[in-house]
Structure formats: structure tokens, C-alpha cells
Write a structure and sequence with these properties.
Layout (H helix, E strand, L loop, with lengths): L4 H22 L4 H36 L5 H13 L2
Helix pairs in contact: 1-2, 2-3
Length: about 90
Amino acid sequence: MKYDKNTINRLKRLQGQLNGVLKMMEEEKDCREVVTQLSASRSGIERLIGVIVSENLAECVKENVKNNEDTDELVKEAVNLLIKSR
């Protein structure tokens, strides 16, 4: 799968957010602030997983349709990936 610039930028933003959380911890910030930022990071990661799985599924389905192949297994695999990521 080729990852587009938007997907890579999402991950870079998440990386920056996690670096910020680490800095907060090193500065002994209030645990509520740290947990809030960690929760936001987790949400961002979950959204990124959804984007990657859905984009990959769309590409694979297009390829299978083009080759007159079944897409049921692709959909099942994508659903399983999403379930595992939870």
C-alpha cells in the first residue's frame, strides 16, 4: 500500500502529540492533563487505523473487481483488522 501525504502527516502530528505528553510527564504536570492528552492521542491513532484500513480496502476491492475476483475475503480481513485494533 502506498501511504499518501495526509496519512503520513497524521502520524507526524500524533508523534508530536506524544512527544508533548512525554514532556508533560517530565515536567510533572497534573495527571488529569496527561491522561487527557493520552486519550486524545489514542483517539487519533484509532482514526488513523480506520483511515489506513479503509483506504487499503478500497484499493484492494477495486483491484479485485477489475480482475473479476471475489471481494468477500477482503472485507472480512478489513473487519478483523479493525476488531484487532480495538
